[in-house]
What we know:
Elements: H1 4-12, E1 20-24, E2 37-38, E3 48-49, E4 53-56, H2 58-62, E5 67-74, E6 88-92, E7 104-107, E8 111-114, E9 117-120, E10 133-134, E11 145-147, H3 155-163, E12 168-172, E13 177-182, E14 186-187, E15 198-199, H4 202-212, E16 218-222, H5 226-239, E17 242-246, H6 257-263, E18 267-271, E19 275-276, E20 282-285, E21 291-295, H7 299-317, E22 326-330, E23 334-335, E24 341-350, E25 356-360, E26 377-381, E27 387-388, E28 393-398
Parallel strand pairs: 5-6, 13-16, 13-17, 14-15, 17-21, 19-24, 22-25
Antiparallel strand pairs: 1-12, 2-11, 3-10, 4-6, 4-7, 5-9, 8-9, 18-20, 20-21, 22-28, 23-27, 24-25, 24-26, 26-28
Helix pairs in contact: 1-7, 4-7, 5-6
Amino acid sequence: MITVEEAEKIIQAEIKDYGVEITPFEHALGRVLAENIKADRDFPPFNRVTMDGVALNYSAIENGISSFHIKATQAAGDHPAEIHETDHCIEIMTGAILPPSVDTVIRYEDLEIRAGLASVLVNHHTIKKGQNIHYQGRDKMKDDVVATSGQLITPAIISLVASVGETELRVKKVPRVVIISSGDELVEVEQVPLLYQIRRSNNYTVKAVLQQNGVEAAMLHIPDNLDVTKKHIQECLLNYDVILLSGGISMGKFDYIPQALEELEVKQLFHKVQQRPGKPFWFGKHDNGGLVFAFPGNPVATFMCLHRYFLPWLQTTLGLQSKPAAYAVLDHDVHFQPDLKYFLQVRLNLNHEGRLLAHPIEGNGSGDFANLADTNAFMELPLGKHNFKKGEVYRVYPFNGIV
């Protein structure tokens, strides 16, 4: 067996650039930007009013004027109005362009409006020249970069690219992924299983996790038959960049996947990792560049390996910066005897002091998939130690929101 760190290093060495493609900006959420986006004009493009109220020339305030005739009313999107008298003002709305003849906006809350007159209610000394105005180019100037290549496209990025008129975006291609489950004991979700059967769920779990990370994967199920297994895996090696296998890689008499991969000349880069869950994890590479992540069939093992190994590989492949490591405080003693790195299921929460606490929810082993619904992270407990004390700090891998 190899260590978790060795397995991670081997996987991270298999990084490949899958190129770029163009997609409509409204379909780009969750993808990775492959170009710099520049402002097509200043941000904001004009001196923009930020409060509903009246716009006037500050020189009137300096001269002690407190009552103003409303010359015009200007909404956002209107052509700018103008004033020519010191004691005139423009009733103006948030988002409107500031007319050249005025330089200060006083909000409604500081005014009294009556019969075409606006009277200033606040002390003149509290009014500042240029207040309540977002000046042209204050955020970005024309041709400034507003979003950089390599950024994950979030709703905020969608807003930015829409505001600069980019209708299509160059994004990083995601690898073509197929999820393969195996085993004669597995039946379709809609079927009523016999006493000795179970419904397939691992493949749907993996597919859902990938969807959360911008990858739409195909799914396939193969029976416990060597020839059929070889045929389907061979087809997948020709049509996909990555195969994610769940089950069939242990030492069972009907675990044909390692043999099928060997006969199809998929080079084994490692098999078995010093960890629980997921010790039988298999990873390999075909000469055509295709990668195979073969996870143990137990649901918790599949789920953990997916988050600990595949998702970091995917992020590196897409050029995303690695997420900062997260750490939490163990809030109960834990004993673990085997000489393996232990990925303990925990529920993370923040206490009133802002400390991230990890509450162990150990469940009933790697087959206890129901236990995953009660947890939101794995805590990585190191090799060479068996007793882990309350108050000790270890790395965590969150997979749901922290509460």
